[in-house]
Automatic annotation (TrEMBL):
Residues 54-164 form the Fucosyltransferase N-terminal domain. SUPFAM superfamilies: UDP-Glycosyltransferase/glycogen phosphorylase (SSF53756). The lineage of its organism: Eukaryota, Metazoa, Cnidaria, Anthozoa, Octocorallia. It comes from Paramuricea clavata (Red gorgonian). InterPro entries: Glyco_tran_10_C (IPR055270), Glyco_tran_10_N (IPR031481), Glyco_trans_10 (IPR001503), GT10-like_C_sf (IPR038577). Residues 180-356 form the Fucosyltransferase C-terminal domain. Pfam families: Glyco_tran_10_N, Glyco_transf_10. Keywords: Glycoprotein, Glycosyltransferase, Golgi apparatus, Membrane, Signal-anchor, Transferase, Transmembrane, Transmembrane helix. This is Fucosyltransferase. It is found in: Endomembrane system; Golgi apparatus, Golgi stack membrane. Coiled coil: none annotated. Its EC number is 2.4.1.-. Signal peptide: none annotated.
Length: 380
């Protein structure tokens, strides 16, 4: 089933686009189509303790101040971040109607809107789910022990969370624009001018042409609403996919769009991306900034690669071979997200199955090796 997704485009920044692209889904200025995922077919008999009763998940808060629109004009749950599906093995419902709180089996709170959390202890009788796809570096609730101890489950970009829901979605296999027809060298689209990536791009621009469409280091007109970012990216040989932090598992829609467009992403972010790139012929699909000591060295390599069609096309080999996933992929965390049952069906299944719900989640400081510094990325 193909579902049209809508963006509330506040900015082209990682902070603005990331969640609003896939969570708010309100304004008609972007179109992406999703293949319907298959719901797991095997569920152990008797393993779901409330299989005959309905499980109601209540999405309590807004998302960035906007009411969550969980159904479309055809009344189907929004795909994929508010997806329930049609064939869930348990009776499952997702609602934003707070008057039904007495029926709720779990309450979902958005991590950027924790000020809207219910304060009465009467709501603590069911588990709370912390849902966000933003970087912990810019999500203060992650740092607050008093807030995180209220939650039992985590639904985030982390592949090791209870309900992984990464913005790095399964890339499209659409054939890329041929090498000779790509008219641009490289593209960057950022409007949140995080210090390290902005300095890196500024230095990179001294050695190669970078077309910058966002507010940061802008040298091209802003992309008008209604223009698909992947269509713009497809005309370029390289897309700079630099998220605003290096937190574990923080991968934004830029990496997905770059791969889907048939350009070659240049990645400056967490090494945990390798847990995804190890599958489906994607291992040589991304150029990593970490492999170069400086913007100068990276620019030299990209310039050389842009003039060597055979070497360049090696990064697009997966587009022609297909994914060719091994059996082990389907039991991996990213395999479960890309191929498994819809998000809220999985939530309902776990709520139905869990007899002992943990109390409290750990804070996430995105510190230590995860902390972004200029010295980490420029070493000469």
């Amino acid at each position: 089933m193909k579902v049209r997704l809508y963006i509330c485009l506040i900015s082209l920044s990682a902070v603005g686009v990331v969640l609003l692209l896939f969570e708010m889904l309100t304004l008609n200025n972007y179109a992406v189509f999703w293949a319907k995922e298959s719901v797991p077919q095997s569920v152990e008999a008797g393993s779901l303790r409330t299989v005959n009763s309905s499980i109601l998940i209540l999405y309590w808060t807004t998302v960035f101040g906007h009411k969550v629109n969980i159904t479309g004009s055809d009344e189907q749950y929004r795909w994929p971040f508010f997806a329930l599906g049609e064939n869930c093995p348990v009776k499952c419902e997702l609602t934003t109607n707070k008057s039904r709180v007495g029926e709720a089996s779990a309450i979902v709170i958005h991590g950027r809107n924790t000020e809207e959390m219910p304060t009465s202890s009467q709501y603590n009788t069911v588990p709370w789910i912390f849902h966000v796809n933003e970087s912990p570096r810019f999500t203060t609730a992650f740092l607050n022990k008093n807030i995180m101890q209220k939650f039992s489950y985590l639904a985030t970009q982390r592949l090791d969370s209870d309900f992984p829901c990464s913005l790095f979605l399964k890339p499209k296999l659409a054939k890329p624009v041929p090498f000779a027809q790509k008219t641009g060298l490289s593209i960057a689209i950022y409007s949140h001018c995080e210090n390290v990536r902005t300095i890196y791009l500024h230095r990179l621009m001294k050695y190669m042409q970078v077309d910058s469409y966002g507010k940061c280091l802008q040298n091209k007109p802003r992309i008008p609403p209604g223009h698909r970012l992947d269509t713009v990216m497809a005309k370029y040989k390289f897309v700079f996919a630099f998220p605003n932090s290096d937190c574990d598992y923080y991968m934004t829609e830029k990496i997905y769009l770059a791969l889907s467009s048939g350009s070659v992403p240049v990645w400056m972010g967490t090494d945990t991306i390798d847990e995804i790139l190890q599958w489906g012929n994607l291992k040589q699909s991304v150029i990593k900034v970490r492999d170069f000591r400086s913007p100068r060295q990276l620019a030299q390599y990209l310039t050389w690669l842009s003039q060597n069609e055979t070497e360049y096309n090696k990064f697009l080999k997966w587009k022609y071979k297909g994914f060719e996933f091994p059996k082990e992929y389907y039991s991996s965390n990213i395999g479960k997200w890309w191929e498994g049952g819809p998000l809220y069906c999985r939530v309902c299944m776990k709520i139905a199955k869990d007899k002992h719900v943990r109390s409290g989640l750990n804070v996430d400081k995105c510190d230590g090796k995860e902390r972004r510094t200029l010295e980490k990325w420029i070493r000469e």
